[in-house]
Amino acid sequence: MSMGGPRELLEMAAAELKAGRAVIIPTDTVYGLAALPENVDLLFELKQRPADKAVAILVARPADAEQMFDPLPATRRLMEQCWPGALTIVQDGCGVRCPDHPLVQALADEVGPIATTSANLSGQPTPHTAAAAAAAFPAVQLVVDGGSLEAPASTVVEVTEDGLSILRQGAVEVERLAEDRSNESSSRRQAG
User: Fold this and answer.
1) Alpha-carbon distance 101 to 85, whole Å?
2) What is the structure's pLDDT at 188?
3) What per-residue confidence (pLDDT) applies to 178?
C-alpha cells in the first residue's frame, strides 16, 4: 500500500497505468481495480472474471464521455444531473462514469479514460478497505489508501433510443430522476 502526498500518489498511479499495470484506487463508492482500456484483459485475469462481463470507463469530466459515444438526449440529462457522481451510464454497449473523487478525476485527466471494476475477486464481496483490496490482489504493486469506503456501488443504467433500463440499483435513484423529468415535462405542457 502506498502513503505519500496526493501529487506523489497521482504520479505513481499514472506511471503504473502507463506501464501497462493495474492499480487499486479509491473512488467515491468502492475501491476499484484499474488499468488503461488497452490493458483491460489484465483486469479480467486478476479478478478471475468472465470476459463477457463489462467494466466501467472512468473519465475526468462529463465531456470526456463523448470520446466513448455520442450522447443521446437522455444520456446528456443524466450526465448533467448526476455527474460527477455514482452513476454509470451504458450507451452503445459502453459503460462510463465520472466519479466524484478528486484523485480519480486527476488520474483520468493525466492518463485519459481508465477501465475500472470493483476491487474484489469475481463473486466475492467488495472490500471496504485498501488493506482488504490489497490482500485480494497480491500481484498489484500499487494500492492507494483512501480510508474505509462504505458507500453503495454506483447505479448502472442503460440508455437507448427507447428509454432507460436500470441494470444495477446503487447509490443514485434513477427512477426518481426519470419521474422528476416526466413531472417537469407534464408541468410545462399544463403551463403552456
Assistant:
1) 8
2) 41
3) 57
What residue spans of 71-170 are helical by DSSP H?
73-82, 102-111, 130-136
* Confidence category of residue 52, pLDDT binned at 50, 70, 90: confident
What pLDDT does residue 2 have?
57
For residues 43 and 20, what is the distance between their CA atoms, to the nearest angstrom? 11
Task: Return the CATH number of the domain spanning residue range 6-191.
Answer: 3.90.870.10
Name the residue ranges covered by the structural domains of the chain. Answer: 6-191
Q: DSSP letters along 132-149, please?
A: HHHHH-TT--EEB-----
Query: What pLDDT, in 10s, does the model give residues 128-164?
Result: 999 999 999 999 999 999 999 989 999 999 999 999 9
Q: Report the alpha-carbon distance of residue 169 to residue 62 in Å, rounded.
A: 21
d(CA 85, CA 177) in angstroms, rounded, equals: 14
Grid coordinates representing 171 are: 447509490
pLDDT tens, 53-97?
Answer: 889 999 999 999 999 999 999 999 999 999 999 999 999 999 999
Residues whose CB falls within 8 Å of the CB of residue 73, separated by 6 or more in sequence, listed in order: none
94 three-state secondary structure:
strand
Alpha helices by DSSP H, listed for the chain, are 6-18, 40-47, 73-82, 102-111, 130-136, 174-191
118 and 126 in contact (C-beta within 8 Å)? yes
